[in-house]
Amino acid sequence: MAETFSEKLSALGLELPEVVAPLAAYVPATRVGNQVWTSGQLPLVGGALPAHGKVGAEVSQDEAYDLARRACLNALAAVDAVAGLDNVARVLKVVGFVASAPDFTGQPAVVNGASELIGEIFGQAGAHARSAVGVAVLPLDSPVEVELVVELRD
Fold first, then answer.
1. Taking the CB of residue 137, how many other CB atoms lie within 10 A of it?
2. What pTM does this model have?
3. Residue ranges of the Endoribonuclease L-PSP/chorismate mutase-like domain (predicted)?
4. DSSP letters of 54-96?
5. Would you call 154 exposed, middle or buried from its count of C-beta atoms within 10 A (0-12, 13-18, 19+)?
6. I need a surface site. Which of 32, 50, 90, 110 has the fewest CB within 10 A?
7. What is the β-pairing status of strands 88-99 and 129-135?
């Protein structure tokens, strides 16, 4: 029998965190037909950011990669709360925002933290379209923010 996505997550030594409470007037994720769209998720751990600032200045590219991975776990928790992780048919889109120092151009490598985690969990069902966007600042001075769009099984 094939491993479920939840079992794969566990086999990787990971677990979904509690859904991060919204910081403003929105919901963490919403279901539309057979898709779930998440709000942008910060890499919060226990309600706090493990790092602050711009990537390429206060935060290294490697640290930001790990933060993107954590933000992706938070987005997956939001998907799970709305539809159940094992009901995902495939990941359609990942959007990563990277608060960047003026000369930092490694946004794609940072957002790989999210994309590679998706691949580890979902395999071929995780092959997705993606945007990696450098921005001046993110909420709470977070270095990264990640959002997902997933398709659900029929």
1. 12
2. 0.96
3. 8-152
4. -BTTTB-HHHHHHHHHHHHHHHHHHHHHHH-GGGEEEEEEEEE
5. exposed
6. 32
7. parallel
- Residues in the chain, how many? 154
| Region 5-152: CATH code | 3.30.1330.40
Nearest of 154, 139, 151 to residue 20 by alpha carbon: 139
80 burial class (0-12, 13-18, 19+ CB within 10 angstroms)? buried
The ranges assigned to domains in the chain are 5-152
